[in-house]
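Hey, sorry to bother you again with one of my protein questions. A protein chain has come my way and I'm curious about its shape. I'm sending you its amino acid sequence along with the backbone structure tokens. I owe you a coffee for this, so here goes:
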Amino acid sequence: MEKDIVNKIIKYLKTLPQTFVWKEHGGMYGTAGIPDVICCHKGMFVAFEVKTDTGKATLLQEITLRKITEAGGMAQMVRSLDEVKAVMEGLDE
């Protein structure tokens, strides 16, 4: 389930030094299209839209990921904790 992947990602990100992380909660009080997991890592804005192996991003989610990237942040759709680890390791290089 997507929720299980999100929980693993958040748990991992909370172990990284100089990282603040939160889960964006959808629903009527949230903003549509905002990625599931957002963090600030060593001063960089990082966002992950989490999907299962068969899940697909909506058009609004794709647009939001692109806008974050265009603004200088890092935004990516991911399907596993390993993908998130690879991204975060790449940011530290």
About this structure: The helical segments are 2-13, 59-70, 81-91. Residues 18 and 42 are 5 Å apart (CA to CA). The chain has one domain: 2-91. The longest strand covers residues 44-50.
